[in-house]
Amino acid sequence: MSKLLVVFGATGQQGGSVIDTVLNDPELSKEYSVRAITRDPTRPAALGLQNRGVEVIKGDVDDPKSLSAALAQAHTVFLVTTTIYDDHLKSREFRQTKDVADTAVAAGAQYIIYSSCVAAESLWGRSVPAFDSKAASEAYIRTLPVKSAFFLPGMFMQNFLTNQSPRPLSQEGDETTYAIANFISPDARMPLIETVKDGGKYVGAILANPDKYAGNNFFAATELHSYREAAEIITRVTGKKTVYVQMSLEQWVSYLPPGYDKAMTEMMRWIESPGYFGPRTKEDVEWTVQQVKEKLTTFGEFVKAHATDLFQQ
Q: Does 90 have pLDDT greater than 70?
């Protein structure tokens, strides 16, 4: 009899990637049956999962009453919470995680895989709310009578299609120069992950060897690149000249919505130093890559695959 894997965020990038990995893997698809949890089972993405043989159940991390049915008979739970940048960020994510984890344990679940982040405040002495909220939730899960492992995704390559996409900077003849802009050093290196294609590959490695990885953190990224290197790769792959522009902090903040600005500023400062996953970012990423059997996507491959979507005019 297969183990029931319950996936929260099933129609999002992380949860969807986990489901894709399990369904497409000959061994994992035999070992696990999949239940997708979504707030709206009528959405096209949820219906698409049903058409692939996935059980889809309505559930909401903000509605504790919905969690008992969502987690009934669960063996393993994959949980990701959505970061909303407001004054309740930390308390909300901790409450959501606690409710799911407590209900999972009460339902007899044997394993929890949580999408987490490093504890920036304890490492750095300054809070990065988007990281510390998940780190506090991870710490709580570790106190529970259940095995657990933790998936810590790096910076999403998908960000280069949205808020970090190259924008037109200047025009000389027929050639447009594009810019990626931020306030951090052009040489600050960031671990990059192709979330949609690769996120599930890391979680799949845990699912394939749960006892081996119990208690472990997976620092998930293919490779580290600075903004300067990312711009050079985009130029080389697409043929469109792209540069990194280091703005002043004040100018950068002026482009951000109120409330979001402070949280993002602290996150980018953290990435610059000591590093996205802390002082051992490079070593932790290298160890994690070695645990994954499937090929992971390089940033150059991502750019090639999304060349037509990369530039916002």
A: yes
Give me the torsion for CA of 268, 270, 274, 278, rounded to 10°: -110
Contact 303, 237 (CB under 8 A): yes
Inter-CA distances, 171 with 99, 160, 231, Å? 53, 21, 17
| Domain 3-155+193-220 in CATH 3.40.140.10 | no
Threshold 0.70, pTM exceeds? yes
201-223 tens-digit pLDDT: 999 999 999 999 999 999 999 99
pLDDT of residue 81 exceeding 60, the answer is yes
Is the bond into 274 cis (omega within 30 degrees of 0)? yes
Question: What residue ranges do the domains of the chain occupy?
Answer: 3-155+193-220, 157-190+223-276+293-305
Per DSSP, the three-state class of 40 is: coil
The mean pLDDT value for 187-194 works out to 97
Q: Is the pLDDT reported for residue 313 higher than 60? A: no
Pick the CATH number of 157-190+223-276+293-305 from 3.40.50.300, 3.40.350.10, 3.90.25.10, 3.30.70.660: 3.90.25.10
In which residue are the tokens 């999949």 written? 34
Write the DSSP string, 123-160: HHSS--HHHHHHHHHHHHHTTSSSEEEEEEE-EEGGGG
Structure token pair of residue 292: 């994954």
